[in-house]
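Summary: Need help interpreting a holo structure output

Steps to reproduce:
1. Submit the protein chain below together with the SMILES for S-adenosylmethionine.
2. Request a joint structure prediction with the ligand placed.
3. Inspect the structure token block that comes back.

Expected: a single structure record containing both the chain and the bound molecule.
Actual: see attached output.

Input attached:
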Amino acid sequence: MKQNVYDNSTFFKAYTNLRESGITYNDFIEQPAIKSIVPNMKGKSVLDLGCGDGHFSKYCIENGAKKVIGIDISTNMIERAKKINGDKHIEYICVPMEDLKLTNQQFDLVISSLSIHYVEDYSALIRNINRLLKSNGEFIFSTEHPIVTARKGTSHWISTEENNKLHWALDNYHEEGKREHDWFVDGVVIYHRTISTLINTLIENGFVLDKIVEPQPTPVGLEKMPKLIHEKRRPSFIIIKSKKLNE
Ligand SMILES: C[S@@+](CC[C@H](N)C(=O)[O-])C[C@H]1O[C@@H](n2cnc3c(N)ncnc32)[C@H](O)[C@@H]1O
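--- attached output ---
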């Protein structure tokens, strides 16, 4: 059974409040990095997997994409996307990305921002993404970094009694699979995969790697969110850009 925590009203409210604050890891780490490696989108067709409130779908249109399809499992997020990031060139579909068919369409670019760690069967998803891309089409996704998802439980920093962070505790790295943590509500499920799994699954399914980014906070981010200084000690996210091989 697929988790749909963004349709939990407590979670949804807290999450949208956070994103509306504009003071987030997304704003100061992940989004600047992913935007820095997207290709020229002029005239391209884009599939945005786990599109959330659709801000990235809208960004693609504003940067020249001719058509975007945004996919999300959450009715709350899709409704919000239609309301605040609607556009006649964007179609939003509420469906788990694992179940996406779109049998008669192929895209120039598939993008997914911080959503793939919610998917259990990564291999099947990558196979489907390959099918959904044109030859030479690009696939760019960000996900929580395996260094962050590896450990079980929620306490990752080893700290002094005065709460000074000493070390990041990496553990259980090679034990892939389900992790539960508390984020706005108890028991939010994500899936841990090693770096080799993230990359080799792409290679085994007809992709060539183009770039890997382990993003660091922007200077403005460090000013507005001083705790982001700890990102220099270990990365929270990894962004992988790859291309579908010619068929
Ligand atoms: C952290 S949010 C990111 C949203 C958006 N990509 C962004 O960058 O703001 C994760 C999104 O993934 C969606 N999601 C989680 N599991 C999914 C699944 N199996 N299929 C499609 N969407 C999913 C959630 O509903 C949520 O909107």
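--- end attachment ---

Reviewer comment: The first strand starts at residue 45 and ends at 49. The mean pLDDT is 96.
Status: needs-info
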